[in-house]
Structure formats: C-alpha cells, structure tokens
Amino acid sequence: MFLPTTMKEVKQLDWKRLDVILVTGDTYIDSPFIGVAIIGKVLVDKGFRVGIIAQPDINSKKDIARLGEPALFWGITGGCVDSMVANYTALNKRRKKDDYTPGGINNLRPDRAVIAYSNLVRQYFKNTKPLVLGGIEASLRRIAHYDFKSNKMRRSILFDAKADYLLFGMAHSSIIKFATALKNSENPESLSGVAFISKEKQGEKIPSFEEVKKSRNQFIKSFDIFYKNNDPITAKKIYQQHNDRYLVLNPPEPYSTTKELDHIHSLGFEKDVHPYYKKRGHVRALDTIQFSIPIHYGCYGECNFCAISVHQGQTVRWRSEKSIIDEAKTISRLKDFKGYITDLGGPTANMYGFECKKKLAKGACHDKRCLSPAPCKSLIPDHSRQTRLIQKIEQLPGIKKVFINSGIRYDLILSDKKHGGTYLKKIVKDNVSGQMKVAPEHTMPHVLKLMGKQNIDLLLKFKNRFDALSKKSGKKQFLTYYLIAAHPGCRMTDMQDLKKFTTQKLKITPEQVQIFTPSPSTWSTVMYYTSIDPFTMEPVFVEKNSARKEKQKQIVTKKYRNK
Q1: pLDDT tens digits for 199-252?
Q2: Are residues 52 and 176 in the same domain?
Q3: Which of 1, 73, 487, 548 has most Cβ atoms within 10 angstroms of its Cβ?
C-alpha cells in the first residue's frame, strides 16, 4: 500500500484526519531503501494515520496544505541525501541533475530543505502541532557543525529550523515511541534517539556553539565527545549550549534486532514511485533500488570521510535469511521484473552475518577501530552465510541472476581465511555484472591514514586473486576503483604518485575519482575545517582552492597536463 498523498486517497482509506504528515525533499518512492517510506510504514503498522507530501513548492500553500493539519506532528526530512550535498558539487557548483526528482532535473529540492520546509509549515500553519526533524540532513547536523557551502560554523539545525524535536539515526523504534507519547499526551524528551532544546543543562557538557565557533580545538573536542556518544550501549546524554539555551541529545535508540528488521521489511513496500508523482517523469533512483534487496544496516569500516557510523551506527545488523528470500520472491512477481536482482547488499556488500562479539556486548571501542589500520582480531569475518544466501536466492523460480553491486571490502575477504576464498570465487563466477566496485580511495600511506583506510598492499593482493578467478571463469571482468582527490593531507605530488600507481600497478586510467566534499559529521570534515589531525593534533595540509582541487583530480583522469 502506498501512503496517501492527497485528501482523495485519505478518504479512500476511510480516514478522517491524518495523525502525522511527512514532508520530504525526495519524490515519494515506496521502498525499504527510502527512509521516509520506512518511517511512514512503521507508523501505519502501529495504527497511526500517515500521509506524505513530497518536494512541496516552497513559494505557495498548495502543496503543504494539501493534506490539512496533522493531529500529532509534522515530520520533516531533506530526503535520502543532505540537500546541500544533493544541490552542490565538491567545487560548490550547482548540480543540474537529481536522481530523486521526477524527470531528473534538480529544480524541486530547496537548499537547506529541512529548514525551508519547516519555515513553510510555520508560514501557513500558525501555532501548529510539533515539527519533528529526521533523516540524514537533520541527523548529521544535529549539533553545531561546519557547513561547507557557507564556509562557517552553523548552529544545530534544530535552532535554525525552529523545530520542536529531532529524531536522529534510523529512528525505526524511536518514531513509534515518540508518536505514542504524543498520542498519550506524554513528554517525549526522555526517549532514546530524541534531541530537543531545553532551558536547562542536561547530561554531559560538550563545548558550546559559541566556543566551537571561536576555537578550532574546541570544535575538535566537541566532535570527539559527540562521536563517542553514538553507540547505544555506551552513550550518555550530552548537551551543547547555544546562547542562553541548550541542545540536549539523548543516547541513540537501541539497534534494531533481526526480528524487528524482518518485520519492517514485511510491511508491503510497493517498490515504485507513487502514481501521483510518477506521472511527472522518470525517477533515476528507482533504477538502482527497485529490484535490489538491503540485507544489513550499519558499517564498522568507520572511514573518516563517511557519516554512516554517525547515522546508521558502527554495529552491523542484518535481516534473517527467510526475510531476504521472501523479499526476493516478492520482487520476482513484480510486473516489470526481468529476472535480475540488481544488488544484494548494504552500506558495504560483504558485512552480512558477522560482528564482533565484544562490541555486541560492550559497545564500540573508543581507542581502536574494527578495520583500520588493519582488521581487528576480535572481528572474525565469515562470508559463509552470505554465500549460502546468494545460492538460495539464485534457485528461486523467476530469478535468473543475482548481482552484487554494493562496494566490496576486500580486506574482509582476505581476512576470512576459512570462507573468504569461497565467497570471492562464487561472486566472481556468478554475481559480478562486468565490474566489481572497490574503494581503496588513495595509495599514499599518510593520506590513507588520515582517511582511516587500510594499506594499499592489500588491494594488489586482492586484484591478483580477482584477475586469476575471472580468467579461470572465462570472463572479462574488471575492478572499478573509487578514489578521492583533495582529501585533507593530499597534495599534488600525492596525486601524481597515485597516478603512477594506477598506471603501473593497476594498468588503468581511473574514471571514478571524486573530489572530497566536507559533509557534516565526519572526521575528515573536522580536518578540513581545522587543518589539524584530530587524532594527533598535528597540523595537516588542506587544499581549499577549487582550481587546485580540480587539478588534483585531473592529474589522475589524464585531463590535466603538467607544463
């Protein structure tokens, strides 16, 4: 069932009034890959009446007032991508395309969408029900943060949006508890995963907005405390002063169990764009997710340039084999399905079915990481469950092929001495659609260290195995390498060395080279803003000139020539 987007649809459900209205910066795709769709579905499953307004016109009342006023609250999200990342490139140029907008033209998502939509609601609904922020834009901007577009520190988005509450992280369970509290006229401020503004101090202090705005060292301290309080097992309540008020962050919601994830994925997603929006044009994002299956959440890679650990968490959770197979059966019955599962993965393809037992019991370590600079001995990779899962899905009626298109952590495969080889042999033979995605990101040791990535020697070892297995299978297949230019610590000479490596060792001219974007709530963004390595407090070179950033990229892609 699609969630209603018009009053006509609301009446067809025999609902008199909506409890919750969700407003999003993406078009409405009813898919388990889309956060706002999940939130809507889990609320409806618990008896709440929910509607969605996607990409409303911020210059008129017609869209935002289409469903009336909710009985409980407005849910505001920028969509699947932070709106400033969606709207601007790493060189601060306006993007022309948007994969989550019908027709693909980037003309419907406003800058700072969460703030824009909150203002829109306030403009036309005076003294309305609470405004509740959620999704990745709100989640990653929940404390005082560096904003790349304006090149300055900004307050918590709760203050700038003038909203009442913010639900951070995935919010699978916190949204239900929150809605129930409002329904029962209870105060939701004690709930896990909830942030709010208070007139009183509550919890452990982190440096104030005024302090982080003045001092880069205080910004580092603030982010360090914030980052260490993202694991639901060990996190404490923290607060950050903004002028004469206080941002309060409760500990994150507990991670969803396998049973809970299975239930979420059983809620009847249509795996399509809602008809109200579909008539406006093709949505490119659907091409990627319509026939794909998410099998796990979270990532213990903790790359310094990535915000997944702050939003989804550092602990990997997975669905049961039965739940995933049931979804594959559902996909096989869709009218446009041609027999090809386009992806079976998650934030990383091969983290399904294994986690560190110490972490599950005591929470994520603060003094070391699971995979960097090398895989921790407490994390015992086991690819056998995913191998069996792929094989079982391949045997289902109507399934011709299962592809693995999420990025592969090759260090995990090499660390899995018992089952890694079998897994790699299987996917190279049957599940690679011509190219396998890997993300070494760079080759220079000092840059890799700042990125939180492993030594490049592992890549060469993996490449040799991949090439040998592809040849043995009689297939002409390639590795696609994701690389980053202009990351903190990276100079022109480092990109020249990277170019030599890709030419001499990998025998390629890379195409997937992106310029580092300082997005909110990552350690790399902290480095970019402060020009300091936050782990050693030593100075770090940071390239901030757009022309030189572009030259770093062009050195590798051959468009730039030294003269």
Answers
A1: 999 999 999 999 999 999 999 999 999 999 999 999 999 999 999 999 999 999
A2: yes
A3: 487
